[in-house]
Amino acid sequence: MSEAEKYYEKGILPRATGEIPVPSDAPEICVKMTGVNKWYGQFHVLRDINLEVCTGERIVICGPSGSGKSTMIRCLNRLEEHQEGTTIVNGTVLDDDIKHIDEIRREVGMVFQHFNLFPHLTVLQNLTLAPIWVRKTAKREAEETAMHYLSRVKIPEQADKYPGQLSGGQQQRVAIARALCMKPKIMLFDEPTSALDPEMIKEVLDVMIELAQEGMTMLCVTHEMGFARTVANRVIFMDAGQIVEQNEPEEFFNNPQNERTKLFLSQILSH
Amino acid sequence: MSEFTPIPAREPPASSVGVVGWLRTHLFSSWFNGALTVLILWSLLLIVPPSLQWLLGDASWSGGRSDDCKTDFVSPEDGETYRVDAPGACWTFTKVRFMQIMFGLYFAANPSEVWRPVLMFSLFGGLITPLLIPKFRWKWQLGMFTLLVFPFIAVALVHGEWLGLPVAETNEWGGFMLTFFLAAGGIVLALPIGVVMALGRRSELPIIRSLCVFYIELWRAAPLITILFMASNLLPLFFPSGVDFDKVVRALIAITMFQSAYTAEAIRGGLQAIPKGQDEAASALGMGYWRKTGFITLPQAMKISIPGIVNTFIELFKDTTLVGIIGLHDFLGSAQIAARSPEWKGYDFEAYVYVALIFFMCCFAMSKYSQHLERKLDTGHKER
């Protein structure tokens, strides 16, 4: 049982089912990957990925390590480059054109496993740097937005501290706020709770659940199956660079179709 | 259900704190360390008091002639009185030759012009001191002024031509002042070149990278003394006859090239220590190369590189004494010349001690300032 699952069981972490808005009937596709392939040297990491994500969808991607799940979401904002296939994000084709890349990066926020906050800047400076210099927001306005999101992640009092003075959970919440300050349309989460102490996972998941409740489009690589059950409207299972299976969480967990999925689920849910 | 109450904290045992604890852990932690402590204390006792006696106690300070450093000696053989060297240091020598050792021959020969280098150094001190005050508000502006404007003021004052003062040609510059110009000029010019080279060496563009690697390796491969020698003796052969630019400028260019290669490597070390995630996070926020470099990687890299950069600065400061090989009379050279004059023959030791003390003071100050900077810039990040 994952840490978050234990919290759900004990009732510490509220299950959010029902409060989360269901994507509208006429879905607007905001991410479309068609026949995407990627190699690291000779190693074929992503094999024929086809994925469509609608606005407002909350997708959890799971799978064994090395299955290409991080690589896949990193291909969506060009932290990794795919060699074959097409990726369209928010109507922009992701190619070598630096303008297209910048356009997409402005609309896609990302949260990393190791937070990657800028240690030489205060929390507030971490949050306002990109809005000021990339979005060209006025400093006052950027700071107001930053304080708004810091309150949202419940640490406005830490604004003038340096990241090194915060706990892991607080740092990750700052990282989420930093991404939100760019007012993104899509949020990518790359194992956001994997580097956290058990006691801090809940505070980060809480923030992510709230975000989901507001209708943010989320692609989330995580092993928090409790989170997947309650928040996701689609779970994707990857192995060996392929999407093996995808389904609604209930179906995915209770009635997996593929043998590989069954094996994976039995291993992560058994202990 | 029992409540958790932590055991109250206690004082550490008396033997591990206080004077006794400190002595035990630092000086007498084993019989071997104890013996070393005793041996070192004993050697210090043998060396320090006689040195101080020579440096200060028996030293001559007064007067203005070499005779003031001599004392009467009655020979037990013939009963005659001879003038022999006094047992202490002869600081009368450095006092009399102060202008020459500090400011070079021109200002020693023209005492009425000495106010120029003195004013220059006072200005420099006046500009540097506020930078050391932690709460000073205009630090950034003052720093920029010191870097960009002060060098011109300094040259104008000492050279004199731009201000309509009697001209002190650069080949007559010397002493500590010349060392200062070469070292400070080398440092100020080499830092930006070093930053550019370090960034270039990590560039993804192969031509830029190769050029930077070539530049850095070229200057690092040759000893400074060779580069100085080439700049002074070989370079003029490539210019048409009649074109001859300043010897001090040539030395400064040579030093800058040499120094920038080392600075570049120190900064590259810092750049490589920045985790890749920093760059990725900045990219994901939509920042391009220059913003990522200017706001994220370079500031952190510079902070990490401070000890390395200051180390090369200190080396450079001392290495400027090599300009003696191309006929410039720097601090050390001027002191040697002063000690070779007929009047003061034989006071080389005082000259060297004097030069060593001043070098030590400057290098120690630089080292302390770099430690202060490191502490100030440490934002307490547990590295990730």
| Strand-pairing-aware structural class of chain B | mainly alpha
**Second rung of CATH, namely the architecture of the domain at 169-377 in chain B:** Orthogonal Bundle
Number of strands of chain B: 3
Q: Rg of chain B to the nearest angstrom?
A: 27 Å
The major β-sheet of chain B equals: 2 strands, antiparallel
- Amino- and carboxy-terminal Cα gap of chain A: 6 Å
Percent in strands of chain A: 15-25%
Instruction: Count every helix of chain B, treating DSSP H or I runs of 4 or more residues as helices.
Output: 16
Please provide the count of β strands of chain A: 10
* CATH structural fold name of the domain at 169-377 in chain B: MetI-like fold
* H/E topology pattern of chain A: HEEEHEEHEHHHEHEHEEHH
Counting DSSP H or I runs of 4 or more residues, the number of helices of chain A is: 10
Nearest-integer average pLDDT of chain B: 87
- Percent helix range of chain B: 55-70%
Oligomerization category of the chains in this entry: heterodimer
Percent helix among the residues of chain A?
25-40%
Sequence of strands across the biggest β-sheet of chain A? 6-7-8-3-9-10
Low-confidence runs of chain A: none
In spatial order, strands of the major sheet of chain B run 1-2
Tell me, briefly, the overall form of chain A. Answer: globular
- CATH class identity of the domain at 169-377 in chain B: Mainly Alpha
